[in-house]
Design goal:
Layout: E1 63-66, E2 71-77, H1 91-104, H2 106-109, E3 113-122, E4 131-142, E5 145-154, E6 161-171, H3 175-180, H4 183-190, H5 195-200, E7 204-205
Parallel strand pairs: 3-7
Antiparallel strand pairs: 1-2, 2-4, 3-6, 4-5, 5-6
Length: about 210
């Protein structure tokens, strides 16, 4: 269980933050020509995903939307099942929301990628019933490494900052999932008659 510090309490220095800053030789991210249009709802990549899937009764059901460039926005409302301390969101749930949002950026690059490192700062508590509004952008690409950052605000885009994260994603091949996932779920996903759903299940793994 993780509780955020009281408002105004500065977080300590992030450990290993240098790994999450794009090096000088990293290239700017390039939005793929087939990426969803700005304003388009991205939808769930896999119905059983805890972060975005509709089949998860206690999941976040986070809704992400494409922005300009390589940016997205997302939101979810903290439910009673997401508590850590009484009436407050569990820190791990908030980290999941950030991870899900950051992972969704890879839809705009059209690459398959997984989280390599995630550094989260908890700035203020997030009460149950609160809408958490998230903004994320990709900041650099070097080889298989994808650097990105996200911020979560209480209530909407003008609300106070509650959480922040920087992350490093690593581009992988689809066999990352088929070689390591539990066989029952892999077979079920690959047998789905809906070709789009079948492909999307293996596109992003925040």
């Amino acid at each position: 269980m993780s509780n955020a510090p009281s408002p105004g309490t500065p977080p300590g220095p992030p450990a290993g933050a240098g790994y999450l800053t794009p090096p000088a030789y990293a290239k700017p991210p390039v939005r793929h020509p087939d990426a969803p249009a700005p304003g388009e709802l991205l939808g769930a990549h896999y119905e059983h995903c805890f972060g975005c899937g509709e089949a998860q009764s206690h999941g976040l059901r986070l809704r992400a939307r494409a922005g300009e460039g390589v940016r997205i926005t997302a939101e979810f409302t903290v439910q009673p099942a997401h508590q850590g301390a009484p009436g407050l969101a569990h820190g791990g749930v908030l980290a999941t929301a950030l991870d899900e949002t950051l992972g969704s950026l890879n839809w705009l690059l059209r690459v398959i990628a997984v989280t390599g490192r995630l550094q989260t700062d908890f700035v203020r508590p997030v009460p149950v019933g609160t809408l958490l509004y998230l903004e994320a952008e990709t900041t650099g690409v070097h080889g298989r490494k994808i650097y990105c950052t996200a911020t979560g605000r209480l209530g909407g885009p003008e609300g106070p900052v509650a959480v922040r994260a920087d992350a490093l994603f690593i581009e992988v091949k689809v066999d990352h999932f088929t070689d390591h996932g539990r066989p029952e779920e892999i077979r079920a996903a690959m047998a789905d008659p809906d070709q789009i759903k079948r492909v999307r299940a293996f596109e992003v793994n925040p």
